[in-house]
TrEMBL record:
<dbReference type="Pfam" id="PF00962">
    <property type="entry name" value="A_deaminase"/>
</dbReference>
<feature type="binding site">
    <location>
        <position position="14"/>
    </location>
    <ligand>
        <name>Zn(2+)</name>
    </ligand>
</feature>
<feature type="binding site">
    <location>
        <position position="197"/>
    </location>
    <ligand>
        <name>Zn(2+)</name>
    </ligand>
</feature>
<dbReference type="GO" id="GO:0046936">
    <property type="term" value="F:2'-deoxyadenosine deaminase activity"/>
</dbReference>
<dbReference type="GO" id="GO:0009117">
    <property type="term" value="P:nucleotide metabolic process"/>
</dbReference>
<keyword id="KW-0862">Zinc</keyword>
<dbReference type="InterPro" id="IPR032466">
    <property type="entry name" value="Metal_Hydrolase"/>
</dbReference>
<feature type="binding site">
    <location>
        <position position="170"/>
    </location>
    <ligand>
        <name>substrate</name>
    </ligand>
</feature>
<keyword id="KW-0479">Metal-binding</keyword>
<comment type="similarity">
    <text>Belongs to the metallo-dependent hydrolases superfamily. Adenosine and AMP deaminases family. Adenosine deaminase subfamily.</text>
</comment>
<dbReference type="InterPro" id="IPR001365">
    <property type="entry name" value="A_deaminase_dom"/>
</dbReference>
<dbReference type="InterPro" id="IPR006330">
    <property type="entry name" value="Ado/ade_deaminase"/>
</dbReference>
<dbReference type="GO" id="GO:0004000">
    <property type="term" value="F:adenosine deaminase activity"/>
</dbReference>
<feature type="binding site">
    <location>
        <position position="278"/>
    </location>
    <ligand>
        <name>Zn(2+)</name>
    </ligand>
</feature>
<comment type="function">
    <text>Catalyzes the hydrolytic deamination of adenosine and 2-deoxyadenosine.</text>
</comment>
<dbReference type="GO" id="GO:0005829">
    <property type="term" value="C:cytosol"/>
</dbReference>
<feature type="binding site">
    <location>
        <position position="16"/>
    </location>
    <ligand>
        <name>substrate</name>
    </ligand>
</feature>
């Protein structure tokens, strides 16, 4: 099977984890930004998390360098365009690009500047390639609830103009959901869809609270519902879609090896699973590789893949007309 030719959808892809190493060097030079090295081989080593990564916290350190060069309108627009260009070349038909606006205001940009730049990059790619994209705004869990409100408020005017959802991400603490009840409730009021990183680092109860307290429609990762029956049942019963990321889950030690990843067990039990990249550069992956892992490690059939693809279509934060187009590809 030619995995590259399969139609694909990526619902869980971080912009700052998917920057081309060459682009980081180019922007650093043109904007006079200091980075550890200026050759592709060594900067790639700096950006890519090793398979023997000890934890999610260690994995997250790989985002420091990309964010240094994501502080101008031009760089954000370019990096976004290049991400969608790379995706289009492997037959990704739809992508939801997520990023935390407050990580990109260190040199004077406003939250609106950041959002508009990313949306512009998506539109540039849509004009040139057969791909559609939307934006998910991330609120970092280490920041205050007030900061999350700031992002929600600033992004509200872009809903239906490129912005579709809000997310909470970063290092995962126990019971983090309680801190963000009010900002996420405000986001729902404005019309944001809700997806929450939860259950990535051994805390299945966080998935339960993300659904019960925050109204999550989708869960980023959700691996550890396997160890929390209440979380497992609510995901299954409410048909909450899991945005699963095989390669990064190995690196962050959510799973020790691919063959032990619960994605196929979840799928066989009727849970709505999807396959995604998480971070193309940090995890040295793409959707073609993730699909290949699915087929080779779990011996899935094309009909299995078709159902997982359709799970992504059904869960996508996009209008019905676009969903019909996406269904037609498979």
């Amino acid at each position: 099977m030619k995995y590259k030719d399969l139609p694909k959808i990526d619902l869980h892809c971080h912009l700052d984890g998917s920057v081309r190493p060459e682009t980081i060097i180019d922007i650093a030079r043109s904007e006079d930004i200091k980075i550890p090295c200026y050759d592709v081989y060594n900067i790639t080593k700096e950006l890519t998390a090793p398979e023997e990564c000890k934890s999610l916290d260690e994995y997250l350190k790989r985002f420091v360098i990309p964010n240094l060069v994501m502080q101008s309108k031009e760089s954000l627009r370019r990096i976004t365009f290049e991400l969608l260009e790379d995706c289009a070349k492997e037959n990704i038909k739809y992508i939801e690009v997520r990023f935390a606006p407050l990580l990109h205001v260190n040199k004077g940009l406003t939250i609106s500047d950041v959002i508009e730049s990313v949306i512009s990059g998506i539109k540039d790619a849509e004009e040139r390639y057969d791909i559609k994209g939307n934006v998910i705004l991330c609120c970092m869990r280490f920041m205050s609830a007030d900061k999350a409100v700031e992002v929600v408020e600033a992004g509200a005017k872009y809903i239906s103009k490129g912005v579709v959802a809000i997310d909470l991400c970063g290092a995962e603490d126990y019971e983090f959901c309680k801190k963000f009840i009010e900002p996420v409730a405000l986001a729902r009021k404005y019309g944001y869809r809700i997806t929450i990183h939860a259950g990535e680092t051994g805390i299945g109860k966080n998935v339960l609270e993300a659904v019960e307290l925050l109204g999550a429609e989708r869960i980023g990762h959700g691996v550890f519902i396997k160890d929390c029956i209440e979380a497992y049942n609510i995901v299954k019963d409410k048909k909450i879609t899991l945005e699963m990321c095989l390669t990064s889950n190995i690196q962050t030690k959510a799973v020790d090896e691919v063959c032990n990843h619960p994605i196929y067990n979840f799928y066989n039990d009727g849970i709505k699973v999807t396959v995604n990249t998480d971070n193309r550069t940090v995890s040295n992956t793409n959707m073609t590789k993730e699909c290949q892992v699915l087929f080779t490690e779990f011996n899935i059939t094309f009909n299995d893949y078709k159902q997982i693809y359709l799970n992504s279509v059904n869960a996508a934060f996009v209008d019905l007309e676009t969903k019909e187009v996406l269904r037609s590809y498979i």
